[in-house]
# Entry
Amino acid sequence: MNGQRAPWEELPAEAFEALAPHLPALTEEIIAAIRAEVPAYARPLEGAFGQAVSRGVTEALSQFADMASHPGIGREGGRRIYVALGRGEARAGRSLEALLAAYRIGARVAWRRTAEAGLAAGLAPETLVLLAEAIFAYIDELSADSAEGFAREQAERAGEADRRRAALLEVLLHEPPAAPEALAAAAEAAAWRVPERLAVVVWPADRGSRPVRRLPLGALAASLDTHVCAVVPDPGAPGRRAEVVAAVAGAPAGMGPAVDPPDAARSHRRAVAALALAEERGDAGVLLASEHRADLLGRADPTLGAEIREHRLQGLAGETDASRERLEATLLAWLRHAGDVRATASDLHVHPQTVRYRLARLRHLLGAEMDDPDARFELEFALRTAPKAR
# Structure
């Protein structure tokens, strides 16, 4: 206790002599009070549960008596019992409150009975005050031991759950697809129901796992290398997309297409590619792979778009950077709107006459490519997949 003598080590010898004969009888009284006042412990004290409670009370009184009569021996040897009690509460699925309540009740009963014995023995008031301090300080230490055990068990269980989810995710994303029996076994071990349809969502690992807690019910998530991967069940359900967007909350993320479980690896690949595109653009939020297929196709081989761009747009090489940027933006909008000048002008927020002027300039520089279907396809693909295109 921070180098200071514990309160129970300050008790005079006559106090212990007066109290020692009454300690054994306290065990049954404390257990009875705990059963009467703590609903979680109201059942018969049978089996391992009953043995743990009885041993805890008995050891608490015995340890207190030993430390009071032999100052300086410490209580390291008895800590494991109360650490184990905390672990047991976590394993049983109970909160720590029931056990801490039992400790408080035990302290109250012990103080009432020892105070009565002390008064009968004629102990001085200051000794009774010190006795009260010793009892409640001791209970505080037992409570801290059990809280430590509870936290350790929870952490270990969380770690095991994380390992099982990661193993399931590895099976789910395996290529070629894992056998149905292997997937079913991994899902059962992770307590996860395999959905009929799913989609994969990924975001950078440095953004943390906080979005996991906000994902739709039934989502499966684990860290994979440089990103966090989450499998979202039933991605086409009403409001599901909004749930995913809200969960990611501003972080760049990619979401793959909805697939059957055997195709989860494909959804994962698309999600990773969509995340890379979002990061390249500096976008925050979820980028859906199904809405950016052409961009993702271009990113699959970035040099291909550059080659097409260089070949088809070589006529613009002599333009200034500003002029070339305007002409390329106009050409892309015109191609996207199938040659509709007014729609192009509206998209660019310019006058239709401005569009006509720029198109005339483009025809002068590019010639017949403006009317060749194959050239127009390649032009639109190259412009859409250009690094600065939006």
Q: What stands out?
A: The domain at 301-384 is CATH 1.10.10.2840 (Arc Repressor Mutant, subunit A).
